[in-house]
């Protein structure tokens, strides 16, 4: 299955003769590169048109102590979407990408908007709920990701901790992540989405993190460099790169390898330069449609 193209596996019409169009619903910050403040540029650089709907308007990501701003009200987003609907712009979209929602009503609105999109569009979900064991969204959103997307989602990219919250499994290693992905696949009741567990730790290996992908009873795994520090927006960067790669790469496996390699190169460059936010502009050539030379990521046998 991983050797087939994304469109072939999910019986979707490939985008031909024009750029892919992505409706990206996630957070926005004035300073830094997280949510749409990362994903929009990354996907545009990768050859996609992007229609961003921002679920937050914040001064920065929440890692800064004096973060100011708002989580936008569902009414505000609905009013904005009415104007977009009147332009018939939702009918032009090939993909809906969901990132940080903030409120369960944002997720419900997203599903309403998907009903306005033409048939055969993709739904790619990064279920942003927390990291390092800390849940920073309401429990209703956890239930939304577990229940409301069944049979609808094509791709889901939880991190190690989010995978545990979605499945009720204890995820602490590659082997437990593998089993949890099987459970998550069963929860989707036969629709068999592409499920990708990111940031998985393995024993005493402090130099690498692991990424596992599950598709219709098959799994592949990759080892990526573990940077000396964490970077806000790394997951948003990966999911945006994955979206563009799935649209244009010849196979799902190539899309995974390229998205992981490009993410790893941007993170390594950011660390090298000492910047506290992702160095997207300085490393933007890495984000191009052109394939990256594989140097940091390798496939491993489960």
**CATH superfamily annotation:** Ribokinase
Count the DSSP helices. 9
Could you tell me the CATH topology label.
UDP-N-acetylmuramoyl-L-alanine:D-glutamate ligase
CATH architecture term: 3-Layer(aba) Sandwich
Average per-residue pLDDT, rounded, comes to: 95
Sheet-strand content, in percent, reads 15-25%
What is the top-level CATH class? Alpha Beta
Unreliable residue runs: none
* Percent helix: 25-40%
**Rg (C-alpha, Å):** 18 Å
* Major sheet: 9 strands, mixed
Q: By helix and strand content, what is the structural category?
A: alpha/beta
Number of domains: 1
Which H/E pattern describes the elements?
A: HEHEEEHEHEEEHEHHEEEHHE
Cα separation of the termini: 17 Å
What is the approximate shape? globular
Strand order of the largest sheet: 2-1-5-6-9-10-11-12-13
Report the strand count: 13
Would you summarize the structure shown here?
It is globular and about 55 Å long. It has helices at residues 6-9, 36-45, 74-86, 104-114, 139-148, 160-167, 174-187, 234-248, 252-273, and strands spanning 20-26, 48-54, 56-58, 69-71, 95-98, 122-125, 130-131, 134-135, 155-156, 194-200, 208-215, 218-225, 298-300.
Architecture overview:
The protein has 302 residues and is α/β, with parallel strands linked by helices. The chain has one domain: UDP-N-acetylmuramoyl-L-alanine:D-glutamate ligase, CATH 3.40.1190.20. It is 35% helix and 20% strand. The protein has nine helices and 13 strands. The protein has helices spanning 6-9, 36-45, 74-86, 104-114, 139-148, 160-167, 174-187, 234-248, 252-273; strands at 20-26, 48-54, 56-58, 69-71, 95-98, 122-125, 130-131, 134-135, 155-156, 194-200, 208-215, 218-225, 298-300. The strands form three sheets. It has a nine-stranded mixed beta sheet with strand order 2-1-5-6-9-10-11-12-13, with helices on both faces. Strands 3-4 form a two-stranded antiparallel sheet. A two-stranded antiparallel sheet has the order 7-8. Helix 3 (74-86) runs parallel beside helix 4 (104-114), helix 6 packs across helix 7 (174-187) and helix 8 (234-248) packs antiparallel against helix 9. The chain is globular. 47% of the residues are buried.
């Amino acid at each position: 299955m991983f050797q087939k193209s994304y469109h072939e596996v999910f019986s979707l019409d490939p985008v031909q003769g024009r750029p892919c169009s992505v409706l990206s619903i996630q957070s926005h910050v004035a300073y830094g590169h997280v949510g749409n403040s990362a994903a929009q540029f990354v996907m545009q650089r990768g050859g996609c048109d992007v229609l961003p709907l921002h679920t937050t308007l914040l001064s920065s990501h929440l890692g800064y102590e004096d973060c100011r701003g708002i989580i936008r009200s569902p009414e505000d987003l609905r009013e904005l979407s009415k104007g977009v609907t009147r332009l018939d712009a939702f009918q032009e979209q090939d993909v809906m990408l969901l990132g940080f929602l903030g409120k369960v009503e944002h997720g419900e609105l997203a599903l309403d908007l998907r009903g306005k999109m033409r048939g055969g569009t993709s739904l790619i979900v990064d279920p942003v709920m927390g990291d390092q064991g800390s849940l920073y969204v309401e429990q209703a959103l956890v239930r939304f990701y577990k229940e409301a997307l069944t049979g609808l989602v094509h791709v889901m990219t939880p991190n190690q901790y989010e995978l545990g919250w979605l499945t009720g499994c204890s995820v602490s290693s590659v082997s437990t992540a593998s089993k949890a992905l099987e459970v998550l696949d069963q929860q989707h009741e036969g629709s068999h989405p592409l499920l990708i567990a990111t940031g998985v730790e393995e024993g005493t290996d402090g130099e690498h993190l692991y990424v596992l992908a599950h598709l219709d009873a098959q799994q592949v795994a990759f080892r990526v460099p573990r940077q000396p520090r964490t970077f806000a927006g790394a997951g948003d960067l990966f999911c945006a790169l994955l979206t563009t790669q799935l649209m244009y790469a010849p196979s799902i496996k190539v899309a995974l390898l390229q998205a992981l390699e490009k993410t790893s190169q941007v993170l390594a460059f950011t660390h090298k330069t000492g910047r506290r936010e992702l160095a997207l502009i300085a490393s933007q050539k890495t984000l191009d449609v052109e394939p990256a030379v594989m140097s940091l990521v390798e496939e491993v046998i489960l």
